[in-house]
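[job 4471] stage=fold_predict status=RUNNING
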Amino acid sequence: NCRQWWRLLRRSAPRNDTSVRLRNPDKSNVEVLLTSAHIRQLNQDDTDDLLELLYRDPYYNIFMIGNLEQMGLDHPDLDYWGSFRNGQLVGALMRYRAFWNACDGGGADLRGFAWLMDRRGDVRTLHGHDALIARLARLLRDYEVRGERQLHFCRLPELKPVLISSHSVRRATLADLPALATFYSDAEEMSRDEQAVRRCLEQCRVFVAIAGGRIVSAALTNAETPNLAIIGGVYTPLDFRYQGYASACLVAICQDLAADGKEACLFYDDPVAGGIYRRLGFKEVGYWRLLLLRPT
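[job 4471] inference complete, writing structure tokens
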């Protein structure tokens, strides 16, 4: 009953001067009140405060900003929780499907975020600022890391002059969805389902290289803000590698972003790819951490 649920929350809440608000199994809201800080799910009324927090570090918060501006706080695939201290929003936690990301503007209750994630049961990927994600992961009790990558995080202040490619490269449309869904269904670590590909086509952008009437390489943006875009999904099947297709897609998408007044960002851990990115003009910002998790 409700009283038993309340006692359970009081026993299991993090003992660090916080308050955590969750939805219990019967969908009612319960809040554990202590003193000066609390965590609660954010709603439309919090949009301006959330954006103000996230734009303090637009590069590392690019996914959180892009998803918020493109999908809004009432989208079923997207949730945000805020960490408040003395009434001020100081941190945020985002869920997009099974992908989680966090922001600490200074004093965020990471232990409370971890406690919330432990009780959700649907965390599969945790990613973001290298040091922040490492700290948050150490606080998780009900998950273990099954895969971990530390990635170079880069931005493109200005695209360097490049040779014009002879490859056929164009921006994909929704008409390409069946072919792109098949292409990305077996794209190794770049694989994604049809729903994810559709979202990139509708809300971001995808560029493809065509040879022999088929897609032989592709690059896309995973999230975009008014000024930035994060490039991902750069993939070429083995039989078509080392022929310049991926570079042609990258140049095309970077040029398209620049024409829209957006700076391209990306992350990588492949030294060969890193060499290509540096030749195009990408500069390192820092490190991005990607964790694959599973329940213990």
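[job 4471] summary: The first strand starts at residue 20 and ends at 23.
[job 4471] exit 0
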